[in-house]
Specification:
Layout (H helix, E strand, L loop, with lengths): L4 H5 L26 E2 L2 E2 H5 L1 E4 H6 L21 H19 L3 E5 H4 L6 H22 L2 E6 L18 H20 L4 E4 L5 E2 L7 H21 L6 E3 L9 E2 L4 H10 L6 E6 H6 L4 H11 L2 E5 L18 H13 L8 E3 L10 H28 L3 H7 L6 H7 L5 H10 L11 H11 L1
Parallel strand pairs: 3-4, 3-12, 4-5, 5-6, 6-8, 8-10, 10-11, 11-12
Antiparallel strand pairs: 1-2, 7-9
This protein binds D-xylose (XLS) and nickel (II) ion (2 copies).
D-xylose (XLS) binds next to loops.
């Protein structure tokens, strides 16, 4: 059981920058962590995190078949020993990839307690292990979270459950996970509400459930202040899966929810590519909107499959898509507390330990290329110049007065008549812009 982590990955070396022309089987072609782009190193811009759940806890099952990976640390008999062996492999993976951050759910890292007292002890025990390993390696925690969706007690929701005892249990679990995140110096705390929704409206009181959800989040925000946790809370929108409908549907819906329950000061969003697609949006749509609304926090970086309608969580490799996302992130000033968390999993046929590295390395390089492209596009004004031109009319004094609230509808209408306005449509130039982007990636 206590096989050293090095034995799992064999004799692999730390992945290094080798440059785009190298033939090395494993190396970063574009991610050169100390290279400065637009005033920050690549590492500072991208803030990569490896997630615990997909990379260390997922056994390779699907709805039609069980485990394929047979990870040694998942086949012990003493849960805490298994958790420690998993932590060994985890930190060896972080070291090999040379990533600065990781993320975890309470129950990914520590054995799930049979009750909240046990839960607290288990999380504290794994925090001892993490603390030591974090000090040794310098790897930091991007965010922690509580799993309020796997245990059957949460089948009808956590905060939105019809049973207040389930709400209370969830509060207990979040308190433990939030305090652990604070103890480990985490930069953010995430809440993804996979069961906060419904299976059927026939048994659902939506107004009541939303009020419960709002109250729950307000309590988490109060507690965050009480314990002096500085990072933001991040809601992770997703429209469905596992529930038929989830209340945190997309960025726009979450914004409305935060506004209604007066939570905008404490809560931002963690946007995931595959969730954006499930909501019928593109990844860059969600990022642009979050920036526009002032709630952009962090990214779960992955990709869906264009032919499959569910959350396949594949490693993101599409440089063109990522370039547009990075463009919007940089335009918004880049990450502050957030980063790029690999909420991504290798496919169930990818059995070899090295496949875990290939997934991350490929996607890290895709993000690095995207960063380089996006920074160049911003510097040249590739999209910003045509965008500015498109809205240039709004710089005129009369147009500004309208937006400043200095004109009534009647005044604007009267002026349209007096000035005999006859506005002519102009081309949106989509293909021209698509060509510019194509040449930038
Ligand atoms: C599931 C979510 C989940 C969150 C953390 O679809 O992406 O993994 O990131 O609870
Ligand atoms: Ni996610
Ligand atoms: Ni997901």
């Amino acid at each position: 059981m206590n096989a050293p982590a090095s034995r799992f990955f064999g004799a692999l070396d730390k992945v290094r920058y080798v440059g785009p022309d190298s033939d090395a089987p494993l190396g970063y072609r574009w991610y050169d962590k100390d290279r400065v782009i637009a005033g920050r190193t690549m590492a500072e811009h991208l803030r990569f995190a490896v997630c615990y759940w997909h990379s260390l806890c997922w056994p390779g099952g699907d709805p039609f078949g069980g485990e394929t990976f047979l990870r040694p640390w998942m086949h012990g008999t003493v849960p805490m020993e298994m958790a420690e062996a998993k932590a060994d492999v985890a930190f060896e993976l972080f070291r090999l990839l040379d990533v600065p951050y990781f993320t975890f759910h309470d129950v990914d890292a520590a054995p799930e307690g049979a009750n909240l007292v046990e839960q607290k002890d288990n999380v504290a025990a794994i925090c001892d292990v993490f603390e030591e390993k974090m000090a040794e390696t310098g790897v930091k925690l991007l965010w922690g979270t509580a799993n309020l969706f796997s245990n059957r007690r949460y089948m009808a929701g956590a905060a939105t459950n019809p049973d207040p005892d389930v709400f209370a249990y969830a509060a207990g679990q979040v308190r433990i996970a939030l305090e652990a995140t604070k103890r480990l110096g985490g930069a953010n705390y995430v809440l993804w509400g996979g069961r906060e929704g419904y299976e059927t409206l026939l048994n659902t009181d939506m107004k009541r459930e939303l009020d419960q959800f709002g109250r729950f989040l307000a309590m988490v925000a109060e507690h965050k202040h009480k314990i002096g946790f500085d990072g933001p809370l991040l809601i992770e929108p997703k429209p469905r899966e596992p529930s038929k409908h989830q209340y945190d549907f997309d960025v726009a819906t979450v914004y409305g929810f935060l506004e209604r329950y007066d939570l905008l000061d404490d809560v931002k969003v963690n946007i995931e590519q595959n969730h954006a697609l499930l909501a019928g949006h593109s990844f860059d749509h969600e990022v642009m909107l979050a920036n526009a609304l002032g709630i952009f926090g962090s990214i779960d970086i992955n990709r869906g499959d264009a032919l499959l309608g569910w959350d396949t969580d594949q490693f993101a490799m599409d440089v063109a898509e990522l370039t547009l996302v990075m463009h919007e992130i940089l335009k918004g000033g880049g990450f502050t507390t957030g980063g790029m968390n690999f909420d991504a999993k290798i496919r169930r046929q990818s059995l070899d330990p090295i496949d875990l590295l290939h997934g991350h390395v490929g996607s890290i390089d895709a993000c690095a290329r995207a960063l380089i492209n996006a920074a160049a596009m911003l510097e040249k004004g590739t999209l910003e110049m045509p965008r500015a031109e498109r809205y240039a009319g709004w710089n005129a004094p009369e147009a500004k007065a309208i937006l400043a609230g200095e004109r009534t509808l009647a005044e604007v209408a009267d002026r349209a008549i007096a000035a005999k306005l006859d506005p002519q449509p102009r081309s949106g130039r989509q293909e021209y812009l698509e060509g510019l982007v194509m040449r930038s990636v």
